[in-house]
Every structure is written in structure tokens, then in C-alpha cells.
Design goal:
Two copies of one chain form a homodimer. The first copy, chain A, is mostly helical and 330 residues long. The first copy, chain A, folds into two domains: 131 residues, Cytochrome c-like domain (Cytochrome Bc1 Complex, Chain D, domain 2, Orthogonal Bundle), CATH 1.10.760; 128 residues, Orthogonal Bundle (Cytochrome Bc1 Complex, Chain D, domain 2), CATH 1.10.760. In chain A, 38% of the residues lie in helices and 2% in strands. The first copy, chain A, contains twelve helices and two strands. The first copy, chain A, has a two-stranded antiparallel ribbon. In chain A, helix 2 packs across helix 7, helix 4 crosses helix 7 and helix 9 packs across helix 12. The interface between A and B is large, with 43 and 43 residues.
Chain lengths: 330, 330
């Protein structure tokens, strides 16, 4: 009895420590998501992978938010219809539901609103919502899935983007080494990684990169102390608010899985984490990190790679004789 | 005891019927594949999905042999680097191991030899074998996988294409309704489908489309009785053998999963199975199928759709600071 009591007290002690560590940190662990509506998620997954939502029949959501590659395309700016060079680096879809808004400039309020954008963007999927619906509507299996999920065979852009968003909401990455440390596993980080994290906090990085997604919670000017030199023309929030003070103010990106989501910054101009950390120090904190400091922060950042979503490739229902044909070369 | 005996005899009867049906048919069921080397298959799957084997970092094997869409891209001819319009319709990778050779003109003797082609083709992935190896070699996890599978960290194009081929060999589609019928389940086909199959045999289609893949076993001239009208410049076997008699002689394509692998013919000019069947009747058999005949053959062809490979999307190991950067727009 005495022994059991000791064990119990030890257990309580461990739990208290765990809660303590997490509660005092600017970053919180990512929680696994249990989908409320698995059938809607499955439908959304099909749509996410279906290139028939593009004019060419070649580009799907997964083309630029590739779930084999951290939910990005790992190129500076995306390739759109007819090899159009996109204006900005594709943000990761992983943990994107934690962002205060979507796109670098926050012009879409949520994942559902975001999902409609690329389909109709001439430089991305180059389709129209009307034609995308016409394609889906011509495929009996899709009509049946929509009926099952939304109670009606009548497909519209609202149900399409609702389903895609429901799938995207499941794309979270719990279980990183850093989260294990947050949850009380002291051995989950080594000395350098922990030093990096302490420096990340003490130097001010965590002022913007915080919350469960280690970012995504606010907008911030890129180039607070020193302007960022780029040929990229993106204006950031100014394009949304029209205010001159919002020039080059962007949504602070998540640092979750940052090891996988290279290249970095809105222009994708920086290929390595070392250069990204060093640049951020100078531009945002007016601080020159030495080589060892950069290395420790990079080591910390690499502990933010979580368990990637386990995706079974969907089998898409075939087009029918009534389905509008893709127009890749027109 | 007596009752058991009757049951046993009935069982034997069923088995005998099953063997009997299959043995007399020009088409044989597809058998499931149990990979000899699952780790090599897993490595091959990663390579199959890895767009870093292309110059742009955007095009993978799966881009044109999309396993969500019957192992094809469902467009007349494929989109290559810089949106180059490919010269020919992408054949399905499903059951491709049963082909006597690869590509429409059979210029690659097997899947391994095929796999190296698109990587270095300027109109497809537009890379070089050397650069592809350099990319893989810069990624420690890839080196470790290759060591595990091939016993050496030294990656070369031979090991890359061996692994891709090992993965592709698993991409078979057993379990179609037609195979169930072949295996003795009389109820697996309805009356029209069975009529279609009988007509498929009696009219001569099965003369070329036979074997487990319902094709892929021989070369045949396209346009035996009437020349096929197309703007496509592919010469077929002539490009390989140099013989004038091989002009427009192509590998007979598999009809497995034909419902999923539209559009049809080497130029991808025909969008519907009805038109494809009707055209083949005229050109190859000098026969005009009436509407009902076409419908029955199409109904039969749709019973050839098998269970699609169950693919878990691979998580690709990230590039490192040493990895050559993709060059999408150069």
C-alpha cells in the first residue's frame, strides 16, 4: 500500500512537471485531429488530389502542396498552368488550419475560402468554378459521394471547398521531438537543440513565431530593422488593406516542419535554414547571430518536424462521356 | 458422412468448372503479386513519386502515370518540362510488367530500361542521369535506403531504375469482375457484358488483345484495313527497326482498366470507349459494329477494371544544403 502510494505520487509529480513545462512556453504541442466527418474528409482528399479541377487536367492541390514533401513544392515559386511562374512561394498546407488567415497576405479568412482561389487563378489551375463543378457533376460516383456527405447530389463550389477544407484540417503533424520535450520528455532534445530553443526565445524569434504552429498567429513587417532585398513584387497586407503601412507586412509563417518546407521566405529565395535564420536575425532583430548560434537555432528548428499525415492515395472515379475534356494545350 | 461427401463433390465440381472456363479462354486472370523484396519496392515507390528526379523538381513518374487515375494522365499527350507537349499518349503503368516490351514502339526491353528514359528526356523530366544521382546522393536517408536494399551507399542509375521497376512490378490489378467470371463466378457478368465478350472473341478483337493483360503480347499494324487518320507523327516499330513494313506498327496496348485510361490510341485522340471500339472494328477488322454491338463490347471492357493498387503516399526525405537545386524556370 505504501509502495503504491509512492508510485502514485511519482506519477502525479511527472504529470505536474509536464504541464508545467508546457504552460510556461510560447509554443504549445500540436494535437492529433480526430475528424468529425470522416466521409467528408475522404471526399475532400479525392478533390485535393484530382487534377480535373484544373484546365489542363494536370494540376491538383497536391501538385503545389505535395503531401510527400511537407505540403509544399520545394521550389521558389510554383508552376502553374502552361508553366506560368507563380508570384510567391507556396505555403505549406500542413497545420494551415492554425493560421489566423490564409495566403501570405491573409486575403482568405480560412481554408475553405482559400481552396477556391487556385482553381480559378489563371496562373495556377486556370479553371473556373463553373467548369470544375461541371466536371464533378458529370461523374456519377462524385454525385453519390456529395449526396452521402451533403445530403444532395447538387454539387456547388461551396460544398467542394467545404470538403477540401475538411480534409486539410486533418493535415496536422503532432509527435515532433520538440512536442515530446514540451510534454515532459527531457531526453527528447539534446543540449544544442535546447540551447537553440533558449536562444530562439531570448533573442526574440518567439515574439512572432509562437503558438502551436510556431507562427501563423499574427502579421508582421518583413524587414523591421533592415529592408529585405528581393525582386519579388508581393506587397503583403497592403494588397488587402490598401494601407501604405502594410507594405511588406506578411502573415508570420509556421515553423512546423520547416526542415521540409524549403526554400524559405515569401520569395523562396533562400535555400538553407542557416541563411534564413541569419537573415531573420539581421532584418527582424537587428542581431548578428554567430555561426554557433545559427547552428543551435537550426538544430532546434529541425526538432519541429512532426509525424507526417498518413495518406492513402485516393482512387479517383473516372470521367464519363459527358465530362468536359481537359485542355492542356489550348 | 453422406452429406459431407456431397458437399465435397460439389466443391470439386465448382473447382473443375472454374479451371475449365479459364483454360479455354484467350484471356487469363491477373494474379496478385507478392513482392520478393518489399524494401526495394518501398524505395522504388519513393523514387516513383519523387519530382526531384526532374530538372524542375515538379515532375515525377506519378505525374504522367498517376496511380489515382489508372496509371495514366488522362490527357491526349503528356505535359513535360516547361509544358512541352509530349509526342504520344502515356501508356498505363498498371500491369505494364506483362508487356513484351515498353513504350508504344517497344524500344525499351523491360520496365527497368523504360524507367531511365523519361528522366533524361528533354521533353519529359528534362534531367540527366548524372544530376538525378547527384540529387539522391546528397540525401543521407536515400543513401541509407540504397545501402539497405543494394548493399552499397553508392547510388547509380542501374540501382535507381531497378528499384523503380521493382515497385512497378507490384502495380497489378487483380480482382476485376471479368476475372471473377474467368474463375468460375457465373454471376460476375451480366448478359450484355457476356454478349460483349463473345463478340470480342468472335469478331477477332481477342486475336491481338489476349493474355492476362488483354494486350501487350505482340506488335500489330494500326490500320490494317483502313489507314488511321492522325496528325501524330509517331512511326511505331519503324523507329526501332528501321523497316518500312514496321511503319505504324505499335505494341498492342493492354485493355485492363481501359475505363480508367482514356483518352485512347497512341495519339490520345479518341475520348470515348464507344468511338474507340467502333474505330478498331473498321480499321483492324473491316467490320462495322452496330450501336448495340458497340455497347455490348464496351460493357464487357468495363468489367476489366481491377482492384487498383493500394498506395500509401511516401514521405520523401528532405533535400540538404548540398542538394542541387531544382531549376524550374531556367
Amino acid at each position: 500500500m505504501m509502495r503504491m502510494l509512492v508510485v502514485s505520487l511519482l506519477s502525479i509529480g511527472a504529470i505536474v512537471t509536464s504541464v508545467h513545462v508546457s504552460a510556461n512556453e510560447p509554443i504549445q504541442p500540436i494535437k492529433a485531429v480526430k475528424p468529425e466527418n470522416p466521409k467528408m474528409v475522404e471526399l475532400g482528399k479525392m478533390l485535393f488530389f484530382d487534377p480535373r479541377l484544373s484546365k489542363s487536367g494536370f494540376i491538383s492541390c497536391n501538385s503545389c502542396h505535395n503531401l510527400s514533401m511537407g505540403g509544399t513544392d520545394n521550389i521558389p515559386s510554383s508552376i502553374g498552368h502552361a508553366w506560368y511562374q507563380g508570384p510567391i512561394n507556396a505555403p505549406t498546407v500542413l497545420n494551415a488550419n492554425m493560421n489566423l488567415a490564409q495566403f501570405w497576405d491573409g486575403r482568405a479568412k480560412d481554408l475553405k475560402e482559400q481552396a477556391g482561389g487556385p482553381i480559378a487563378n489563371p496562373g495556377e489551375m486556370a479553371f473556373t468554378h463553373e467548369l470544375a463543378i461541371e466536371v464533378l457533376d458529370s461523374i456519377p460516383q462524385y454525385r453519390a459521394y456529395f449526396k452521402q456527405v451533403f445530403g444532395s447530389e447538387k454539387i456547388n463550389i461551396d460544398s467542394v471547398t467545404t470538403a477540401i477544407a475538411a480534409f486539410e484540417e486533418t493535415l496536422v503533424t503532432p509527435g515532433s521531438r520538440f512536442d515530446k520535450w514540451l510534454e515532459g520528455d527531457q531526453a527528447a532534445l539534446n543540449k544544442i537543440e535546447l540551447e537553440g530553443y533558449k536562444l530562439f526565445k531570448s533573442s526574440g524569434c518567439a515574439g512572432c513565431h509562437n503558438g502551436p504552429a510556431v507562427g501563423g498567429t499574427l502579421y508582421q513587417k518583413f524587414g523591421i530593422h533592415t529592408p529585405y532585398k528581393t525582386e519579388n513584387k508581393a506587397e503583403g497586407r497592403k494588397a488587402v488593406t490598401g494601407k501604405e503601412t502594410d507594405l511588406h507586412v506578411f502573415k508570420v509563417p509556421t515553423l512546423r516542419n520547416i526542415e521540409l518546407t524549403y526554400p524559405y521566405f515569401h520569395d523562396g529565395a533562400v535555400a538553407t535554414l542557416e541563411e534564413a535564420v541569419s537573415t531573420m536575425g539581421k532584418l527582424q532583430l537587428d542581431r548578428t547571430f554567430n555561426e554557433q548560434e545559427v547552428a543551435s537555432i537550426v538544430a532546434f528548428l529541425k526538432t519541429l518536424t512532426g509525424k507526417q499525415p498518413n495518406i492513402r492515395l485516393p482512387i479517383l472515379p473516372p470521367s464519363t462521356n459527358k465530362t468536359p475534356r481537359p485542355q492542356p494545350f489550348e
